[in-house]
Amino acid sequence: LKTAALENPKFSGQIILTDQTTAKEITKQLQFNQANYIDTVVKYENATRYVWQLEEISLPNQQENISFKENGVYLITGGFGGLGTLFAEEILQQTKNATIILTGRSALTSAKETKLKKLTENGGNVVYRQVHLSDETQTKTVIAEVLKEFHQLNGILHTAGMTSDNFILKKTTEEFTKVLQPKVLGTYNLNLAIQGIDVDFIALFSSGVAALGNPGQGDYA
């Protein structure tokens, strides 16, 4: 709804959560909120009206490191993207003997080989596996191969994602599906693939677009 409002200034949308059940009370709430359409998410609870807002928070100067295991094995989807590379570098900085498996949809190109070589310059064990996460069989196969080769899997960082910008009115089903596949179907297939495996974590990554909307990215939001 926020993306649609950014794409078309004549459109506004609200989500209203309410504990009222009578038509009279709900009508009053709708009429009040129609006049206060700036409030995009509203919640009524015990006769009190709450409005969703962003709040600035202060972080401590000293940040604790994420704890990656010294001999851990970590799989990073979308491994050559910005987030994937960032976390690969972080794991390599914090450990000496960890193994990182980067995955992606496409075959290993010369540019990716250069990135891979740079990551392993300081002795890190980093490998690449091609996989389409939207394919359940491929996803299960790559997880099984990781377990067979490295005997464990300690964590998954699911950074894979893609955009296909177009206004909602013009966006095709194909574009919409392409954007949702890595995040939605990819997460589902990864979850299926790790059933019965004792992983420490699976980390999913969102975007500010999910909270604020962005023209052309209704599907990504």
List the helices and strands and how they pair.
Blueprint: H1 2-7, E1 15-17, H2 23-35, E2 41-45, E3 48-51, E4 73-77, H3 82-94, E5 99-104, H4 110-119, E6 125-130, H5 136-150, E7 155-158, H6 173-193, E8 201-204, H7 208-212
Parallel strand pairs: 1-2, 4-5, 4-7, 5-6, 7-8
Antiparallel strand pairs: 2-3
Summarize the structure.
The chain is α/β, with parallel strands linked by helices.
Give structural notes.
This protein has 221 residues and is an alpha/beta fold. Helix content is 38%, strand content 17%. The protein contains seven helices and eight strands. The strands form two sheets. It has a five-stranded parallel β-sheet, with helices on both faces. A three-stranded mixed β-sheet has the order 1-2-3, with no helix packed on it. Helix 2 links the parallel strand 1 (15-17) and strand 2. The chain is elongated, with a radius of gyration of 22 Å. The mean pLDDT is 93.
